[in-house]
Design brief:
mainly beta; 2 domains; 4-stranded antiparallel β-sheet; 12 strands; about 10% helix
């Protein structure tokens, strides 16, 4: 069997382009799986309950203080209801529990992501139009 390096290179480029951690390609009897593992979490905590959490990685310890709001599904994150519209949240904005902080689009369905707690937006962790995974932190509140 001859390995097609061009396909492997393309798949590796897609990992970066779409911010993926793993990609699998199957054609007839050939199956290629490309993955990257830059950061490994020990005891990852995915919180939709508003509790404070900390993450550690093999790149050193990174403590995240605050209340994390995470993506409930895999999809594409959007900061506003439509292009050019006012963003749901900005850094420093006070928000209430249940208020929409972002939209995650999956399979042509726009899913509003509510805040899990009252607070002030400390950090927006994803860019507009960026793919997100289930449990990925999208904003941090103080």
């Amino acid at each position: 069997m001859k390995i097609n390096k061009k396909i492997i290179k393309e798949l590796s480029d897609y990992l970066e382009e779409f911010n993926l951690t793993e990609l699998e390609y199957t054609e007839k009897d050939t199956k290629i799986k490309v993955s990257k593992n830059n950061v490994t979490l020990s005891n990852p905590t995915y919180s939709n309950t508003g509790e404070k959490v900390a993450e550690t990685s093999n790149l050193g310890t990174k403590k995240i203080s605050g209340i994390q709001v995470t993506s409930p599904i895999i999809g594409t994150a959007y900061h506003a209801p439509e292009p050019g519209a006012k963003k749901f949240v900005e850094i420093g904005k006070k928000i209430k529990k249940g208020e929409t902080v972002m939209i995650v689009e999956a399979m042509k369905t726009m899913n509003h992501v509510p805040s899990t707690s009252d607070g002030v937006v400390k950090e927006i962790c994803v860019k507009d139009g960026q793919p997100v995974e289930f449990g990925q932190t999208i904003i941090i509140l103080e």
